[in-house]
Amino acid sequence: MQKPIIYILIILMLIVIGISCSVNEPIEEEDPYALWKEQPNEIIVFMSKADSPEGELYLLNKDGQITRLTDNNRHENNPAISFDGKKVAFNGGDEDNQLTWEIYILDIYTREETQLTDNNVIDAHPDWSPDNSKIVFGSFRDTQGNPSGTADIYVMNNNGTGLTQLTNSSWEDNDPEWSPDGTRIVFKSTRNTQQSGREEIYIMNSNGSDPQRLTTTRGWQSDHDPSWSPNSNQILFTRFEGSRIWYDVANFAEDWEELTPWNVHRVDLNGNVERLTNNSDAGWGVTLYSADASQILFGTIDWITNNSNRVIGGNHRLVLIDPDGSNQQQLISDDDHTGTLEYFDW
Known about the structure:
about 350 residues, Neuraminidase
């Protein structure tokens, strides 16, 4: 008659032991870089102020390791990785005095740095030719080399020699990027709108000839940071869609809704524009195809507001989408760089 009770006690003991084992089993932590490790690109270089008030360049590799590339009291930004993945071009200088901004090249693995320009004008937004032999960039200088209120596009050898002016407009030409097939350069310009802060996307031959406008804006729309598809047939860009000029940020904390959003768009070489995202409050944005064109990576700032709807901060995030604009995913989890991460390349 005692056997059923013994059996019940044994069963209860087994259940308790099972629960105890399950409680004590280590919980496997989620890899914050899992999605990044699935991507075809090998590295990301980005600017962040996580360890420096000026802003430094950092490298994210395929293991999920973040390495600081620069360490000085200079502001670095607008990184561009060479086509062979060995070097990064960028502009550096005093963040509060853009006349000090010069073009530099950094060897990612030896950390050897080379300064390519040295003058009293704004030199910024460098990019590489596909053979890595030349650098194209925007420069706020006139024909005599003095500071100018508008930029033109220049090209030079990767050692700083052979400086050649590609555009000569009384309006701004900036943000150049070389097509992967080497035949064209895309850039933004106000030469059609003839109004500061009303940029549109243009392409030209790599020698500066035959400029053609691809996008048309209206109101206070403004197109920025164009980048090529791997097959050189399409161009991604971010369009500012606010209700006032995009750089009127003196009172941004209160007026932020008038100064957003920025959304990802795509244009082909015939000028057909397609909007890919519809973020109502996102700010900022560099937009880049992955190496195999299977994904698009862009940057957003998700604004943090208080009870009075005043901006008190923002999370700077890298977001991955499919080529049709669907399936938005944050590429890496929030970390020490989330508050200040800006321009990047991969």
